[in-house]
């Protein structure tokens, strides 16, 4: 019996058609694995973003507090840090989430354009910044002016879960600024 062979060119075309692209089953398996890996990674990534945002808030606040203390020492007079109101003045609140002001003068005076040292504003989000005082004033000696208050604590925590602490900054009566970081596990 004679063996019939196809021309080489026809065989090459046939084999290329078989290996081109993915089958539907291969595509579905790959997409399923990708979806599972993505579902496991998203919560971790959200927690990572929140921790970085909390570090940023704490870093900005710590920088502002150091700046206020250094300005008080340099000027030899009171410098105050307070919660930022929408109109650019001080907000009588212990929620500093929307930002804060640093200005020359005691806490009993309102900040004016010529006394403003720094202004930090931010949008409200998943994190909240609360303080144990509405204002914090450093005297010309660099100590906390409101001596009856003791230590003033600034706490960055989740808006939905207030007991979840991310960062904390403390200012002692003597003006010493210290911080604790990364105790938060997430806002779940």
Q: Key features?
A:
single chain; 9 strands; 188 residues; 26% strand; four-stranded antiparallel β-sheet; alpha+beta; five-stranded antiparallel β-sheet; 34% helix
- Biggest sheet: strands, sense, closure? 5 strands, antiparallel
Distance between the termini: 76 Å
Give Rg in angstroms.
30 Å
Number of strands: 9
C-alpha geometry = elongated
Strand content: 25-35%
Number of helices: 2
Percentage of residues assigned to helices: 25-40%
Whole-number average pLDDT?
Answer: 80
Give the low-pLDDT segments: none
Order of helices and strands: HHEEEEEEEEE
| Structure class | alpha+beta
Characterization of the model:
This protein is of the alpha+beta class and 188 residues long. It contains 2 helices and 9 strands. The strands form 2 sheets. Strands 1, 2, 3, 4 and 6 form a 5-stranded antiparallel beta sheet that branches. Strand 7 and strand 8 form a beta hairpin. The chain is elongated, with a radius of gyration of 30 Å.
Brief synopsis:
It contains two helices and nine strands. With 188 residues, the chain is α+β, with helices and mostly antiparallel strands.
List the topology elements.
Elements: H1 8-19, H2 24-75, E1 79-84, E2 90-91, E3 99-104, E4 116-121, E5 127-131, E6 135-138, E7 152-158, E8 165-171, E9 177-181
